[in-house]
């Protein structure tokens, strides 16, 4: 069992930056693929970014490519999402997720564990 806790969300003006963190419990974090997803009000949850167990492979949604960076620190059981040049359309609840095969999947049904989410609001 893996528990995930996100933090770092908040209110920011358009063009600003935020860094989200997701801390995982358990000793097997370094073997999990990790992903970030988001869900805006009235919309379906969508993929944002993912990273392999080793950190050598990353994958981004087209909407965030070049603005967001996913990274991980296996010694700290933490995955990060650095978000730059934020836009109002980035406003959503952001969730981190873990999948036990170590791959950076973009489909949410590939993930086994989910955090509770952190709110990101970007004002125009």
| Average of pLDDT | 96
The description of the largest β-sheet is: 7 strands, mixed
Q: Give the beta-strand count.
A: 11
Provide the low-confidence segments as ranges.
none
Measured by DSSP, the beta-strand proportion falls in over 45%
Radius of gyration: 13 Å
Order of helices and strands: EEEEEEEEEEE
Overall SS class: mainly beta
Helical percentage: under 10%
Q: Based on CA inertia axes, which overall geometry fits?
A: globular
Number of helices: 0
The CA-CA distance between the termini, in Å, is: 40 Å
Description of the molecule:
There is one protein chain. Helix content is 0%, strand content 48%. With 124 residues, the chain is mainly β. The radius of gyration is 13 Å and the shape is globular.
Task: Describe the structure using short key phrases.
124 residues, mainly beta, seven-stranded mixed sheet, four-stranded antiparallel sheet, 0% helix, globular
What would you say about this model in short?
The chain has no helices and eleven strands.
What secondary-structure arrangement, pairings included, does this model have?
Blueprint: E1 4-7, E2 10-13, E3 18-24, E4 33-39, E5 46-51, E6 58-60, E7 68-73, E8 78-83, E9 92-99, E10 113-114, E11 118-123
Parallel strand pairs: 2-11
Antiparallel strand pairs: 1-3, 3-8, 4-5, 4-9, 5-6, 7-8, 9-10, 9-11
């Amino acid at each position: 069992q893996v528990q995930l806790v996100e933090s770092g969300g908040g209110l920011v003006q358009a063009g600003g930056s935020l860094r989200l963190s997701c801390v995982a419990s358990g000793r097997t974090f370094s073997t999990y693929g990790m992903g970030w997803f988001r869900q805006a009000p009235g919309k379906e949850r969508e993929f944002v970014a993912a990273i392999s167990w080793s950190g050598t492979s990353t994958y981004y949604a087209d909407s965030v490519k070049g603005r967001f960076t996913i990274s991980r620190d296996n010694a700290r059981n933490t995955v990060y999402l650095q978000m730059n040049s934020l836009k109002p359309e980035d406003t959503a609840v952001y969730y981190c997720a873990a999948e036990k095969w170590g791959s950076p999947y973009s489909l949410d049904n590939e993930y086994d564990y989910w955090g509770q989410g952190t709110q990101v609001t970007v004002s125009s």
